[in-house]
Design goal:
The chain has 233 residues and is of the alpha+beta class. It is 61% helix and 8% strand. A four-stranded mixed beta sheet has the order 1-2-4-3.
Length: 233
């Protein structure tokens, strides 16, 4: 979906060695490494477990970051792998789907029951129907908000763990500054993969209102940088 291309050590020895060294420090297996042909500096990690993981970085990231900054980004992505965040997100998505299905089933039962017992239930039946309708509508929304909240919390955790891995929080903080300030849009950003990236690929499309922030997959970059620079290592 991102048109990422698998590389070997001979294709980019410096990047390969950087990932290898951080994997040794983190006690992780070496993931497959991909490069995405995008000018926007960004990166993501995915995979069902540390033994079947991949890291993908854009060409823009390799071209625009200094080594310590790139190291901070890679450490962040390795932290996602070590924390099994992909597995956690999969479980959460499944649970959200189950909540939506149960809510839909409850809504159908409420309407069918209302239709079959219109006269006997009276006003009490109408109240139960309204409650059921409200629960059926709000439950999936609440489950989705919970999923997005977990996603944002895991980003904070990966930032902290990545900083501990490199012992240099400033590297990742500077990288996030450059990534957020870069004006290049991603050619074909996708909602289905946006949550994987270290920073949202939808440049300039994030609202600052508190309501919209509830539906963001990533916490505000400013808060992430503040937390990193407040770390004592």
């Amino acid at each position: 979906m991102t048109k990422a291309k698998l590389i070997e050590k001979k294709d980019n020895p410096e990047l390969y060695r950087l990932v290898e060294n951080l994997c040794i420090s983190a006690g992780l297996s070496l993931p497959k490494i991909y490069i995405i042909d995008e000018a926007q500096p960004n990166a993501f990690a995915t995979g069902r477990d540390p033994e079947h993981a991949v890291i993908a970085v854009t060409k823009g990231l390799l071209q625009k970051l200094e080594r310590v900054e790139l190291e901070g980004v890679i450490a962040h992505e390795l932290s996602h792998i070590g924390n099994r965040d992909m597995l956690l997100q999969t479980v959460v998505v499944i649970l959200v789907g189950i909540v939506a299905m149960v809510s839909n089933w409850f809504l159908r039962i409420s309407f069918l029951g209302r239709g079959g017992r219109r006269d006997s239930r009276g006003s009490g039946g109408a109240i139960l129907l309204i409650i059921g309708l409200g629960a059926a509508i709000l439950a999936p929304i609440a489950a989705t908000l919970l999923r997005l909240s977990i996603s944002r919390k895991r980003e904070f955790l990966a930032d902290a763990n990545g900083a501990l891995l490199t012992r240099y929080p400033e590297g990742l903080a500077r990288a996030l500054e450059k990534i957020s300030a870069d004006p290049n849009p991603m050619k074909k950003p996708s909602n289905s993969t946006a949550h994987l990236f270290i920073s949202s690929p939808f440049k300039g499309k994030q609202s600052r209102s508190w309501f919209t922030k509830l539906f963001l997959t990533h916490p505000p970059i400013e808060q992430r940088i503040k937390n990193l620079r407040g770390m004592k290592i």
